[in-house]
Amino acid sequence: MAYMPLDKSKFHLDKSTMTKIHDLSNPWGVDTPLWPFPGPRADLAFPRGQYLGRFHKRTMTYTGTLHAGTHMDAPNHVLHEEEVDRERYGYTFAEIPLEHCIGSGVILDMTYLFDEFNAKWDAAGGDPTKFGDIWVELKPEHFEKALKKDNLEIRPNDWVVVNTGFQRLWRKNNDKYYNYYPGMGPEVAKWLIHEKKIKGISGTWGATDAPLWHYPLKEQMPWLDTAYKDATGHDASEKFHDYEPCHRLFMQHGVVTVENAGGDIDEVSGKRMTIAAFPFRCEMADGGFVRLVAWEEGKF
C-alpha cells in the first residue's frame, strides 16, 4: 500500500474567514454516562470490524441505546401515534421537521443554580437527611430572571438552551448530574409552549423532565425516592405524580427537545445566536445523537 505523506504547504482552506461554530454537545464513547434505570443495562460498545494495521481502513460497529450523550428525542419515544399530529410534526426520528431543528434563539445563563446546589450539598456533607429540598424545578420566573440579566427575550419560533452549570459534572459525578440537576416540570413546559411559542428546547440536564418527574419514583429511581423522602419527609409521588410530562407536552406540540447539552456552552451563555441540531434519517429510531451547535451572524 502506498502511503500519503503530509504536506501542509498545500492546504488551502482559510479558517480565519469562517464564522466560529460553538459546539454545545458533550463528547461520548465507551464511558458515556447513561440514565440510571434500575437493574443492569448494556453499556455502549464500539467493536472494530476492520482496522488500519491490516485492512488499511477503520470501520466500527456501534451497539447501544440511541438515548446517550447529547441527543434528540422523537415523539414516538413517549407518545402513541394517535396522540400526535403526524402530518404536521412527524412521529419517528426521521420525520421530525428539519425547519424545527434550526433557528434563532437564546442561551440562558442559570449557572448560579449550580453554585447554590454545591453550597447546599457541602453544608449537608452529602447527607440526604440534611439536604432539605435541594432539588430545583425550573419555573417561568427562573427563565424571566435569566432573560432580564442579559437583556434577552424569547420570541415566537425561538430555540431556548439553558445552561444550569451541571454539565461540569458530566463524567465527573454522574450521581449528582442525573439525580439533582435543575429541570423542568409541566408548569414551565406549558408556559414555553403556549405563551412563548418556542420550537426547540435544550439544557444541561439529564432529561427534559426534572429527575423527580419520573413517576412512580419508587420504581423508576428508588434510590432517589429514598433520598427525597429522607431530605423532605414527603412522598415524591404526591407532588410529582406523572411520568415525564414535559417530554410528552413538548413533542405533542412540535417542540424539538435535546438532552445533555454541554460542550462550549459557558462561552456563549447570555447571548442570542443561531442554534441547530439535526436528526439523522432513521425510520426505526425513537431518538438519536445530534451535534447541538450555535453561531453568531457571519459567513462560512
Describe the 3D structure.
It is a single chain. With 300 residues, the protein is an alpha/beta fold. It is 26% helix and 16% strand. The chain has one domain: Putative cyclase (Glucose Oxidase, domain 1, 3-Layer(bba) Sandwich), CATH 3.50.30.50. It is built from eleven helices and 13 strands. A nine-stranded mixed sheet has the order 1-13-11-5-7-9-10-4-12. A two-stranded antiparallel sheet has the order 2-3. The chain has a two-stranded parallel sheet with strand order 6-8. Helix 6 runs parallel beside helix 10. The protein is globular and about 70 Å long.
How would you concisely characterize the structure shown here?
The protein has 300 residues and is α/β, with parallel strands linked by helices. It has helices at 52-55, 86-89, 112-124, 140-149, 174-180, 186-195, 217-220, 222-232, 236-239, 245-252, 265-268; strands at residues 22-23, 48-50, 59-60, 71-73, 102-109, 137-138, 159-163, 183-184, 200-203, 256-259, 271-276, 287-289, 293-295. The strands form three sheets. Strands 1-13-11-5-7-9-10-4-12 form a nine-stranded mixed beta sheet. It has a two-stranded antiparallel ribbon with strand order 2-3.
